[in-house]
Design a protein that fits this description.
Helix content: over 70%
CATH class of the largest domain: Mainly Alpha
Order of helices and strands: HHHHHHHH
CATH topology of the largest domain: Rna Polymerase Sigma Factor, Chain: A
Number of helices: 8
Radius of gyration: 18 Å
Distance between the termini: 53 Å
Structural class: mainly alpha
Number of strands: 0
Oligomer: single chain
Largest sheet: none
Amino acid sequence: MAATLSDDLLIQQALAGRQSAYSMLVKRYEQYVFTLVLRMVKNREDAHEVAQDVFLKAFRYLKDFRGDSKFTTWLYKIVYTTAVNHLRKKTPEILSMDDGERPIHAAQEWSPDASSQMEIQDQNRALHHAIKQLNHDDATVITLFYLYEHNLDEICQIMDLSLSNAKTKLCRARQRLKNIVADQYQELMSI
């Protein structure tokens, strides 16, 4: 039943004091929030901490959600600002090798044989690894656009960008990702 309740209804119930309604929202979006935070902070332990902060802030400011945009856009704006603030406070660390849990679907037709499935999994791992090598803004814009399928207007709201700036960031992030993937491919071919 919880899956059939709309975000708006759960928000109304949470604002009316029903804690279980907010718990349903958290359950619905915890994996999305964690994955996006992990892409930015690149450390699983920090990502758990930041994700908890995100949901605390979202609960605290839920009364300010006006419904002008989708709830996910509003929530991801909190994710983005909380993660950026966390990164500003932290000194640079060695990159974590933790992988996001959300699969990236490579542009390839599905094939039922095991070798094709393994190849797709290998491509997903390589793509996740390549995204981890991007700076946090590039990883965020790629993740929002391709994995979570946000449109550019929503990305503008989340990342507090103009439309032209969002388009430029997405274009540059794509190019950087393409270069990283090409470099990895070249390394594999030279082995």
